[in-house]
Amino acid sequence: MSGAHRAVWNGPAHTSSTPTPVIANDSFGKQKEWLISKYADDREINTAIPNYRRLTVVRLDKKGDFDLEIVNASSSDEGLYKCDIDPVEGIFSSKLYIIQLKALPSNLTIDNETHKDTVIGTEYQTLKLACNVESGIPPETIIWKRNRIALKIGGPKRNVYEFQLGRTDHNSNLTCEVTNNLMKIPLTKTVKLDIKYKPRVLISHEQTKPVVEGSTKTLCCEIDSNPNNSFMYWYKNHKSQMFNRHSFCLIFNQLTRKDSGNYTCLAGNEIGNGSFTVSLVVLYPPSVYLMYNNKYIRGNKRYVTCKGDGLPNTLTFFRVAHKSLFNEHIRYIEVSSDGIATLPPMEASDRYQDTGLYVCNASNDVPDREGNKFQQGKAFLVSDAPPVFVADNKKIQYGEIGKPMDIIVKVYSTSEIKCLNLNAIGSLNIKDIMKKSVPLKINFHGVNITANGIEVTFRLVKLHGIRWFNITVCNNFSMSSFILEVRKSGKKHEQGIE
């Protein structure tokens, strides 16, 4: 300064017990309180201050100059300087000067960082990411960022970002960015997160759609874990016994219904275990069968029931076919939605006609290995009824009086024959009664079919005369009779049945 008669310098207080406070903005525009003490009066330096040897009040070009010169300036010289001027002419005045050093932040470090710029954590635990820096002047701002998005703003010196870890954080990059007003390019450091987590196990849902018996099927276990799983096993139906398979895929070359069940893939590592369970549903065609009870067939309510045990167990039933033992069609019987075929009402003496082979057809829309969607069940039903003398038995038979004669009839019975009797008025001498199984024709529900019957022969020692005969046959259920006339044979009628 020039034109001064006298000047007093004050600077940053060091040892003064009574420093003078001054309010002023620093060089960064921030208002603060400064503490100062006397440095020089006129040109005489205050020797009580520790840095007096580096201070000089100098005159440069003019006699009234009182400039303060500091030799080897350092951070200890930072602060506010005040010069009080006693001019030769004019009004007393003061001038303020601020020495404030500027520095860039440096030495950026991140706590718990490995040599590969990695920070290790564990799923569901809290991670503290601490970014440290040697502070600069002016103070720096420290920002944690992920994908250029700010997560936490802090500083100076340190910024700690705390959050709970999830497996989605694995392999993500987080960047600590440090900047202040002096920096054109921020100071940065990026670390990669290495998150340890237990296996996450998945079996694709597409692989668990129902499949048809006989098909090929593969169940594959997908495992996501860090570190890699140290073991994996397959279980079926949650049983403790393990499958003797450690491969990621179960391969079924030809599925059977026994392969249906719940399959679990279990995997584990040092963090924990994970598992996933799926249901394997094997569809198969029904095994069709018929249920019946002779007691009901003998009663007023007579029916047969068609059943099946396929998967799905929603069956569609078709008409039940009634056939003879020789596979001759007799009739169809309508079936209800629950598989019941009700037999039409009949007199007890005619219920023998319900005897035969009953064939049920059902489908659950699942084909068998030959491609057939319709499956059959068969059962041979026997309906108790009295013996039946078939229609082709002759009510007039011929023989010669005084000679042996065979009286022959054919009988159909649904149970064992218990008695065979031949009766007539007058003398009757039977030498023998013979029976043998023969095929015969008989009417079942209006259809003439073939059935296994019995041919009965009553062998007479001799025919005593023209007469009427009553033949009685009984079985386990009841008895039936047949009356025939024996006439004398003539030229047109040889002995035998007409």
Low-confidence runs of at least 5 consecutive residues? 494-498
Task: Decide which structural class fits the backbone.
Answer: mainly beta
Highest CATH level, the class of the largest domain: Mainly Beta
N-to-C terminal Cα separation, in Å? 167 Å
The description of the largest β-sheet is: 7 strands, mixed
Return the CATH topology of the largest domain: Immunoglobulin-like
User: Shape from CA axes?
Assistant: rod-shaped
Number of strands: 40
CATH homologous superfamily of the largest domain, by name? Immunoglobulins
Subcellular location: Membrane
Membrane topology: Single-pass type I membrane protein
Region (Disordered): 1-25
GO molecular function, one term: cell adhesion molecule binding
Give a brief outline of the structure:
The chain has 498 residues and is mainly beta.
Which descriptors apply to this entry?
mainly beta; rod-shaped; single chain; 40 strands; Immunoglobulin-like; 498 residues; 1% helix
Outline the structure in words.
The structure is a single chain. This protein has 498 residues and is mainly beta. The chain folds into 5 domains: 4-99, Immunoglobulin-like, CATH 2.60.40; 106-197, Sandwich (Immunoglobulin-like), CATH 2.60.40; 204-283, Immunoglobulins (Immunoglobulin-like); 289-381, Sandwich (Immunoglobulin-like), CATH 2.60.40; 388-497, Immunoglobulin-like (Sandwich). The chain is built from 1 helix and 40 strands. The strands form 10 sheets. Strands 10, 12, 13, 15, 16, 18 and 20 form a 7-stranded mixed beta sheet that branches. Strands 1, 2, 3, 4, 7 and 8 form a 6-stranded antiparallel beta sheet that branches. The longest helix is centred in the middle third of the chain and has 5 residues, at 294-298. The chain starts with a strand and ends with a strand. Residues 494-498 have low confidence and may be disordered. One of its GO terms (molecular function) is cell adhesion molecule binding. Keywords: Disulfide bond, Glycoprotein, Immunoglobulin domain, Membrane. It comes from Mytilus coruscus. InterPro entries: Cell_adhesion_signaling, Ig-like_dom, Ig-like_dom_sf, Ig-like_fold, Ig_sub, Ig_sub2. Residues 1-25 are annotated as: Disordered.
